[in-house]
TrEMBL record:
This is DUF1449 family protein. It comes from Novosphingobium resinovorum. The chain crosses the membrane at residues 12-33, 62-80, 92-112. Keywords: Membrane, Transmembrane, Transmembrane helix. InterPro entries: YqiJ_N (IPR048376), YqiJ_OB (IPR010840). Residues 136-195 form the Inner membrane protein YqiJ OB-fold domain. The keyword Transport does not apply. Residues 11-105 form the Inner membrane protein YqiJ N-terminal domain. Pfam families: YqiJ_N, YqiJ_OB. It comes from the Bacteria.
Length: 205
């Protein structure tokens, strides 16, 4: 079967299988493209439109939907080529098989995606204002934050989502070192100003 998958008639399905495994591994180790703001949830309005027909009518992250579609396309393609080989003695050319498998796979994925949406935990998309990060604590990730020389910090909002912002100390004389936490007290543009979580007598000059 493995050698058969490397023949031209099966190559589209071998490629989709490898791509499905790759996306699945990315999701499994927690590096989903959502971390780079490419992931998303699709919500339909339940009116039976095209999105609902494609299986995007419920809340389901796009990468999971895509992984399901690739799996259905692969299974439909292999089944089609196996069936044509059994009936006619040879598989279809890869282009014709791909078209047939895409139609069959999309139809099959409608049921698979809707089933996954019911099984998987609910996904929530939380959108917050930048100013909502004020009065939250951030941790300096690298370097030392000084006035005029902001450092990158990680802030976890009330929903548990991480944000990465540039931070300067609120007071001119302060400096906030890597690993220290500080309270964000104001913002100017993209830069937050913070008070370090240590007594004033211990703050770096």
């Amino acid at each position: 079967m493995f050698s058969q998958m490397l023949t031209p008639a099966y190559l589209p399905f071998a490629f989709s299988f490898v791509l499905m495994i790759g996306i699945g591994l990315i999701e499994a180790i927690g590096l989903g493209l959502g971390q780079f703001d490419l992931d998303g949830d699709f919500s339909g309005d339940g009116d039976g439109g095209m999105l609902s027909w494609l299986g995007l009518g419920g809340e389901l992250p796009i990468l999971i939907w895509l992984t399901s579609l690739l799996g259905c396309f692969t299974l439909a393609g292999i089944a089609l080529q196996q069936g044509m080989t059994a009936i006619g003695g040879a598989p279809l050319p890869w282009l014709g098989a791909s078209g047939g498998a895409l139609v069959a796979g999309a139809a099959l994925n409608t049921f698979a995606a809707n089933g996954l949406a019911r099984i998987l935990p609910g996904f929530e998309t939380t959108v917050i204002s930048t100013d909502d990060l004020l009065r939250q604590r951030g941790t300096i990730l690298e370097g030392t934050a000084r006035r005029g020389a902001p450092a990158r910090a990680k802030v976890v909002d009330r929903h548990g989502q991480a944000h990465f912002v540039m931070v300067e100390p609120h007071d001119d004389a302060d400096a906030i070192s890597s690993g220290e936490t500080a309270l964000l007290v104001r913002r100017e543009g993209q830069v937050f100003f913070a008070v370090p979580d240590r007594p004033a007598s211990l703050r770096l000059p």
